[in-house]
Amino acid sequence: MAGKGGVWIDHREAIVVFLDTHSEPPLHMASHVVKHLSRGGDSPLKGSFEARQVPRDDRRQMALSGELNVYYDRVVEAVANLDGLLILGPGEAKGEFKKRLDRHKLGARVAAIETLDKTTDPQLAAKVREYFNGTAARVRS
User: Fold this and answer.
1) C-alpha distance from residue 2 to each of 10, 21, 79 (Å)
2) Which of 55, 93, 108, 132 has the fewest beta carbons under 10 Å from its own?
3) What domain count does the chain have?
């Protein structure tokens, strides 16, 4: 095990902060996932849409889910050696990432999940450090 760290994650980007390594900068991982795929087909002004020209919504959602799973797996790989992990983020991606960690049998390493809007790298590192230092102080007393 490599120590403790934190990950700030949403559907566009993940930032991984490692606490126990010296001088290692935060790791930025872009998802490259397009959330709102555009529909193909003719414009309503040019004529009617044909069902064959517009992809089904469930097919588009399956493609989006598949791309997100590849992204989450890359982030899981980056944090796999940590024995304590704080998950932060603004939306539902943090819960989806926790489920992905559970699937990889790494869910027990998650110390907490908290909601946090976008912050700078130093603020994120300070938040993770503060959480784990505060947890250690609570366990000792």
Assistant:
1) 24, 8, 9
2) 108
3) 1
CA distance 131 to 45: 56
pTM: 0.76
Range of the domain at 11: 4-140
Q: CATH number of the domain that 123 lies in?
A: 3.30.420.60
Q: Which residue intervals of 1-56 are DSSP H helices?
A: none
The rounded radius of gyration (Å) of the Cα atoms in the chain is: 19
Q: How far apart are CA 27 and CA 61, in angstroms?
A: 28
Between CA 133 and CA 44 the distance in angstroms is 59
CB 29 within 8 A of CB 78: yes
Residue type, 102: D
